[in-house]
Amino acid sequence: MGFYDDRILPHLINLTCGMSVLEPLRRRTCEGLSGDVVELGFGSGLNVGAYPETVTRIAAIEPNDRGWKIAADRVAGSRVPIDRAGLDGQRLPFDDDTFDHALTTFTLCTIPDLAAALSEVQRVVKRGGTLHFLEHGNAPDESVRRWQRRLEPIQKRVAGGCHLTRDIPGVLADSGLTVETIDRFYQQGTPKPMAAMNLGVARIPLVE
Questions:
Q1: pLDDT tens across 120-143, in order?
Q2: What is the dihedral of CA 97, 99, 105, 107, to 10 degrees?
Q3: Which tens digit of pLDDT belongs to each residue from 162-174?
Q4: Is 134 contained in some domain?
């Protein structure tokens, strides 16, 4: 990582993704989680206060050391035990069927090989378990999508490889997950190219 990505970007993400308007969305996303959960893209721990009481452990996947340091106070104050258990969502260091559920928030936009990461989620989460997600992505309106395509090269440079145009429901379905619930909307107070949200739950198939 370069100086910007390593030292500056984690603080910017902590500020922008830590806006109070997103807290209710994080709580909605975490509803229904229980048992052992693997969280891809733990970042600075902004979901810590949203975990329901039914969650017993969080295995945090976070590649950035600075982001993990920013999360230190949240991790220390968490009711749920949290371990930094891996660095790369594309190669998870766990046995098959280790977790009850998985969680991603504002993470799927940046993973280079998203198909590999979703395959890994399905490998380490037990059959019938779920992936809970809150992700921005491809807008439902063509006029907004045009702006997303124009802005994406800049966004990728300044936001750690973040894509604006990923079709989140599509990539989940293409990976073999079953999208059971999804709420698609524009987040108020955010420019529309960055505000097309996908909040929902996708289920791991019962059989491969």
A1: 999 999 999 999 999 999 999 999
A2: -40
A3: 999 999 999 999 9
A4: yes
